[in-house]
Here is the input.
Amino acid sequence: MEHTERYGDIKTLNSVIDNIINNGDTRAKQVLAEYCKGNALILLPLADDSSKDVKCNVVYYAEGNESVLLKLAADKNDDVRECVARQSQGNEKILSHLAKDLNPSVLIAVIYNCNGNNNILSAVADTIGSDVFREAHKHDKAEQYVKEQLVKAGYNTSEQALDKDWRTRELVANSGKADVETLKKLAHDTSARVRLAAVTNCGGNKDILLSVSKDKNDDVRQAAIKQANGDKDILNAYINDKWVGVKLEVMKQSNGDTEILEHFKNDPDYSIRRFCVIYARGNNDFIADFINDPNTAVHEEVARRCGGNYSILKALSTSSESKVRLAVAQNILGNEDFIPLLLEDSSNEVRDTAVKKCDASFLSLALSSDFDNVRAIAFVRALKENVEIRNLNNMIVTDESFIVRYSVANLPVSVIGKELSKALQNDPDVTVSSTAKREAVGTEASLIKY
Here is the structure.
């Protein structure tokens, strides 16, 4: 005990201990408590020390000695009593005594260490409900804070569900400890927050979900329908709801059931109709009915969700809206007979997308396009994919568009070949020629390296 060496001039061990207890500094007393192996004859005198730190060390090293812990359970210092509660796991005698404490931190320590003992939890509940406790804490939230811990510990949730404070009732609903009957009551609480918590935590109980279908709060109804999981009874209970959030959840939870989705096909809100297409999950017989929808966003979604269906995409390919035609181009399979229309579309984005996605058999047509970008993309694809096109190199070199020759010049020599590379190195446009030379030098350097 290095911190007690200064007391070593005293000859007997007992004298050393007495000297530390009566005259030692705080650290020496702490060390003595640590090394006395739970000896009550040493710890009890130390329990009377004026230092909180010494008394807390006594608690830590009491090794469950009940006489020592009981003595300190009555200590005037809050921290000491809290230490006792934390070091008295499952000790009903000590914790029952501390359950009457007026300090919230002590009570919470009791709750956490009583192993769910209902008698102790009940005693804590009586304490925080007493006039003495409420008077002592009338300017803070101590009562509510301790109640929260009682609820989390699962104490008498059916009784707590009747608490006058809505926050306690909400805690019960969120605790995961409340039984179905308690949740049924809370699902019809006067507080919307309590009802929402009860519904959210009901585990999909059908009776509860059906019972709140007419709740005045939108969030409560939405929380309920989110748990429908395809149940037709629940879906039909909410199918006529006016709130968009509930409508969307009904469709989502329908799992693609067209009988449910049919109800929303002509909804006045285009976003509902759009999601109707989304939640149809690729049912093209159902989705096709939206081709004549008056809203462009719905048409776009039809093109995206039809899985490349030929008849649907062809019908939409002549749309007056470029966004719709772009969605068509983005979802073609590549061999559709309406692709030539897309290649000559008035929108740059539609044309570029079409030439990128079309089958290689359409590249010859694309190479004769009046649009520079279409030709550039087609030439690059033809070279990368080794598409056999007569006089391809000559067509590239003689193309009047800078963007065509420059796009090809940016390709590696291994793709375009040495003959075309040399021709482009002699291009009259300095940008094209320098780009082709850079690629050629890069290729030679790579060959030298290996």
User: Anything to note?
Assistant: The mean pLDDT is 91. The CA atoms of residues 51 and 118 lie 34 Å apart. The first helix runs from residue 13 to 23. The chain is about 65% helix and 0% strand.
